Amino acid sequence: MTGLESRGKLYSVAEFAVNGVPPNDAQAGRPSAKGASMSQATRTLVPFVCRRVAYGERTFHLSEPMQVHVDNHDGVWVHEYEPLGIIAAGDTRAESLDAFRMDFAACYDLIAQEEDGHLTLDARELKKRMLALVERVEKV
């Protein structure tokens, strides 16, 4: 199972969108049926809020909702969660979201699970924020 949860519903990468509403073609970064392309201007979309992040065979259950900012700049999709310093990008919304989920899992594995003695002061602060955010990890 892979995806993000919003308002109690788990969405796959392909269908997840702002505030739990599946994206239309333009929001997903695809030309519409009429063949029109997205404008190349920066688009800041409404952030989405999630309580779980799924990647690979794990689901990270969060202690509080996480608000992820979504932008599209010159055709590049970006998902960002500033408190953890995660910024992921992709050519499509789905690629960017998948990169975000991968970076979240990597942050948990490489920082939150590391011994403090092996981490810099900044990394220890990041570890505290990550461990406070992740309530539990479930293998699926």
Pattern of helices and strands: EEEEEEHHE
Give the number of DSSP strands. Answer: 7
Uncertain regions: pLDDT < 50 for 5+ in a row? 6-39
**Class based on secondary structure composition and strand pairing:** alpha+beta
What is the helical fraction, as a range of percent?
A: 10-25%
First-last Cα distance: 7 Å
Layout of helices and strands:
Layout: E1 3-6, E2 9-11, E3 43-55, E4 58-73, E5 76-81, E6 86-90, H1 93-112, H2 121-133, E7 134-139
Helix pairs in contact: 1-2
General description of the model:
- The chain is α+β, with helices and mostly antiparallel strands and 140 residues long.
- The protein has one domain (3-139).
- It has helices spanning 93-112, 121-133; strands spanning 3-6, 9-11, 43-55, 58-73, 76-81, 86-90, 134-139.
- The longest helix is centred in the C-terminal third of the chain and has 20 residues, at 93-112.
- It is globular.
- Mean pLDDT is 80; it is low at 6-39.
Based on the model shown, name its key terms.
140 residues; alpha+beta; 7-stranded antiparallel sheet; 38% strand
Brief summary:
The chain is of the alpha+beta class and 140 residues long. It is built from two helices and seven strands; from the N terminus they run E-E-E-E-E-E-H-H-E.
